Structure prediction request, 572 residues.
Amino acid sequence: MRVASEYRLRRRVQFHETDTAGIVHFSWFYRYMEEAEHALWRSVGLSIAPRHATVGFPRVAASFDFHRPLRFEDEFEVHIRIARVGQKSIRYATEVTKDGHSVATGSLTVACIDKRPGAPFRSTPIPSEIAERFEVALPAPDA
Amino acid sequence: MRVASEYRLRRRVQFHETDTAGIVHFSWFYRYMEEAEHALWRSVGLSIAPRHATVGFPRVAASFDFHRPLRFEDEFEVHIRIARVGQKSIRYATEVTKDGHSVATGSLTVACIDKRPGAPFRSTPIPSEIAERFEVALPAPDA
Amino acid sequence: MRVASEYRLRRRVQFHETDTAGIVHFSWFYRYMEEAEHALWRSVGLSIAPRHATVGFPRVAASFDFHRPLRFEDEFEVHIRIARVGQKSIRYATEVTKDGHSVATGSLTVACIDKRPGAPFRSTPIPSEIAERFEVALPAPDA
Amino acid sequence: MRVASEYRLRRRVQFHETDTAGIVHFSWFYRYMEEAEHALWRSVGLSIAPRHATVGFPRVAASFDFHRPLRFEDEFEVHIRIARVGQKSIRYATEVTKDGHSVATGSLTVACIDKRPGAPFRSTPIPSEIAERFEVALPAPDA
Prediction:
């Protein structure tokens, strides 16, 4: 069984992600982080939102600190790692880098909710077949 | 019964809608047109996507010709009118203007599809309680 | 001279802001917060990004905690208030509400940078004609 | 000298590109087409928007016909080909396919404009070092 604790997504800045200031609009970093999260799930054979899912993973908190701008056609890397797997939630830590320099650092917490028809929008334990796929990654020594 | 054939949406350009060229990214005009379409539906008491809808209205064609740029904080108007109501589809014509000058002209065709569970993604007659709310608007004399 | 410390933006959820989970994608809340920020600036006669600006205000940190989902056509309010005006940065606090219930709470910090040609991407004091327009708003008693 | 007439971009649907109807929002196809266009330019060593460009390429027309939906995590291909290189404009034809089935067909026309400070937003001849990189691709026999 494949188990994962981190993922590195290579990405290039697209034109429509930039704004009048000539840099990537900050709202895109939250999407980059989520793209890396979903790639992490795929790396262990999971989809975070299969078509007839009985559970879903809405975001309950997300933050970023921005250190450097990204510009059109820049190539960058989104490193996401699992910081905590709780009974009903998962927390990720993210660093966006370009040419080895830190561009932004972020974190994301998602909760597991029951998605069956009529179920309230409320957290529920993460199914074991999902939870057992992920394990916590320690931060890098210099982080 | 309220019946409508057109709608004028007032809108301001948001920062995140602009790109590095300093103008609104062209993909936004399709969203502006759709925002006006949904406001047109609301003006006759309808939602195009109520929560337990049995029909849906996917877009089957959309085009724009762009004449002038829009920039951050520009105020503009999106005029949408119904160009045709068919048995299974609706066609709209749109003009985006700023200070009376044409910024872009577009068109949008949407089909009616069956959304009940298990139904194929295929067109179906527009329910009469929807179709009877809309009537074709002739283009303005100078258009 | 008009001075402001907060702004309340009324907004409706647009279809393109929702995702497959049937709710507003979380990345949109950062845009809603920024839309309210720019409306706050306009309320005192300022643009945060005039065409030949000598200073700019890139985002250096932004976070949200999400409490309830928003859905297509929901009407909601974005309340932004100034939490701190520093020499080179401004911090805002935000609450998104719907029908009086808290949907999300967030914060945003922006820095002032020199935008003159050739200037490095580095913080600089906020011009007094901007700083004097804003004053800190205390949180509401029950917040 | 590298010359190109077409490009095939492989892409996966991201979660934030989908909407409440469970499919990719139609506005994204215009972005997919543009992403493929910019990759086509990069394939001959060009950027469509280098940082100190003297010309720019705003979009003057864009259209799509939609045949099939795309859903979260679908893998698809965007094939863009040059349909016409005029003195002051370029026209592209695009087909989006998934598993060999046509998802959407589109077209895009961009004009060349003078971007030097103070220049009006008006078309100008495409510089020869750009025009000579592109040649028209005939449509596929069965298209």
Remarks:
- The mean pLDDT of chain B is 95.
